[in-house]
Amino acid sequence: MPLYDCMLLLKPHVKEGLMDLVSRVGRHVYSRNGVLTEIKSFGTIQLGYGIKKLSGRYYQGQLMQMTMMATPNINKELQYLNKEDRLLRWLLVKHRDTKYGLEFLNEDDWELELSKLPRGNIYDDEDIDEDEDEDEYDENPENGGEH
C-alpha cells in the first residue's frame, strides 16, 4: 500500500469537531484495511489569502496532517470531505518511490543491503583500550600541556 499525506485545513473556530473529523477519516481508512501512521497538528496558521465560504471569508485556519498507508483509490473515497462544512480545504499527497514492509523485502537488493551490516562481535579484544593512553597527556601544567 502506498503512503499518503492528507492535509486538512479547518475553520479556525472549530474545536470540538476537529477530533470528530480526524477520527472519521481514520475510521474510513481503517475500514479499507489502511493504517494511520502519524497525525500532526500545526495549530492555527495565518493564510496568505482569504478563503471564501458561505459563512464568510477566512484568513486563518487550523492545519492538520494525517500520514496513512491506504489503497490507491483513497482519493476517490475521501471525496465526501468536499461536502464537509468544517473544512476550508483538503489535499491528498502520495509519497513517491518509497518502499515499506513487504514491498521492501520483496526487492532483490535487500540481501545486498543486509550484507553491508557488520557480522562480527562488536566487542573484539583488539579494540579494548584499558588506560593505555595515560601517558599521552601531561598532567603537569608547568609544561604547557606538551609531551
Provide key terms for this protein.
single chain, 147 residues, 33% strand
Question: How would you sum up this structure, described in words?
Answer:
The chain is of the alpha+beta class and 147 residues long. The chain has 4 helices and 4 strands. It has a 4-stranded antiparallel beta sheet. β2 (35-53) and β3 form a beta hairpin. The longest helix is centred in the first third of the chain and has 16 residues, at 16-31. It is flat. The mean pLDDT is 80.
Question: Which helices and strands occur, and which strands form pairs?
Answer:
Blueprint: E1 3-10, H1 16-31, E2 35-53, E3 56-69, H2 74-77, E4 87-94, H3 102-105, H4 110-115
Antiparallel strand pairs: 1-3, 1-4, 2-3
